[in-house]
Amino acid sequence: MTSGERSATRRRRERMVELLGAGDISVHDLAAEFDVSLSTVRRDLATLAALGRITRTYGGAVDHRAVERSWHDKEHEQRGEKDAIARAAAALVRSGDVVLLDAGTTVARLAHELRDRGDLTVVTNGLSTLVELADAEVEVVVLGGRLRRPNESLLGTRTEQALRRLTPDIAFLGVDGLDPRRGINCPDPEQAALKETMAECARAAWVLADHSKLGGGGGFPYWAPMPAGTGLISGGGERELAAFTDAGWSVHSAAVSPGDGAEGAPLHTS
C-alpha cells in the first residue's frame, strides 16, 4: 500500500467514525457512501473496533452510543471542572506517598497538579500522565503492558502482574461513565479488570469524574465494580452525588474557582 493509499484509508476511517457518531448506519450504507466494497467496509470496521473507536452490533450496524473517543478529543471538555477535581485530589496526597494514577484526561490534570511534589512516587499506566511528569520533580514508575488506543493507556497481563506486586498509598482512577451500584463503565474487558485491580491493590482509591460521567453509565458493555468505601471526587450536582453517598461511596464535591471558566452543572463544596 502506498503512502497515498494509507492516507486515504485513514481519512475514510475517520469519516466513518464521524458518520457513526450521528446514528446507527449499515455496512451497505457505508459502502455506498465511500464507493468501496463491502469487504473493505468490514475490514475498516474491524480495525476501528479493535482500536476501541466503535462497537459493532449484530447484523453489521454500529452502535453510536458506544463510540470511544481519544484522549485528545476529550482533554478540553469540562476543563474548569476537571481542574477543580484535580486540585481536590491533590490535597489528599501526603508527603512520601506512592500514588497510582490511571489513564484519563482528569487524572492527567491531577498529574499536572503534582508536578512539583518531589516527595512523591507516581506509578502510572497513562501516557498523558507520563507527558505531564516527564520533566517534573516527581519520581515516576511506568507500568509495562500493551498500548491501548484511543485512550492511550497500558494494560494487559504484564500490567496486572506489576500492579499485584504493589500497595500504593492512594490510587486515582479515570472513567468514561460511572454508576453508583455497578461501578466504572469500560469499553474493554481488560480495561475493566485493570481498574478493578487498581482499586483493590491501593490503601485508598478515588474515582475522578466530571458531572457528565455520573449516573448514565457510558454505553459500553463492561464494568469494573469498586470496593466498598471507594471515594468519588466530582463536580456533579447534589442529587447526582447523593446517589453515590447512598450507595456507600465516600463523596467529595469539587469547587470551581471564578478564573477556571467552568462549563456544565453548578459545583458545590462539601
TrEMBL record:
<dbReference type="InterPro" id="IPR036388">
    <property type="entry name" value="WH-like_DNA-bd_sf"/>
</dbReference>
<keyword id="KW-0238">DNA-binding</keyword>
<dbReference type="GO" id="GO:0003677">
    <property type="term" value="F:DNA binding"/>
</dbReference>
<keyword id="KW-0805">Transcription regulation</keyword>
<dbReference type="GO" id="GO:0003700">
    <property type="term" value="F:DNA-binding transcription factor activity"/>
</dbReference>
<dbReference type="Pfam" id="PF08220">
    <property type="entry name" value="HTH_DeoR"/>
</dbReference>
<dbReference type="InterPro" id="IPR037171">
    <property type="entry name" value="NagB/RpiA_transferase-like"/>
</dbReference>
<feature type="domain" description="HTH deoR-type">
    <location>
        <begin position="8"/>
        <end position="63"/>
    </location>
</feature>
<dbReference type="InterPro" id="IPR014036">
    <property type="entry name" value="DeoR-like_C"/>
</dbReference>
<dbReference type="InterPro" id="IPR001034">
    <property type="entry name" value="DeoR_HTH"/>
</dbReference>
<dbReference type="InterPro" id="IPR050313">
    <property type="entry name" value="Carb_Metab_HTH_regulators"/>
</dbReference>
<protein>
    <submittedName>
        <fullName>Putative DeoR family transcriptional regulator</fullName>
    </submittedName>
</protein>
<dbReference type="Pfam" id="PF00455">
    <property type="entry name" value="DeoRC"/>
</dbReference>
<keyword id="KW-0804">Transcription</keyword>
<dbReference type="InterPro" id="IPR018356">
    <property type="entry name" value="Tscrpt_reg_HTH_DeoR_CS"/>
</dbReference>
<dbReference type="InterPro" id="IPR036390">
    <property type="entry name" value="WH_DNA-bd_sf"/>
</dbReference>
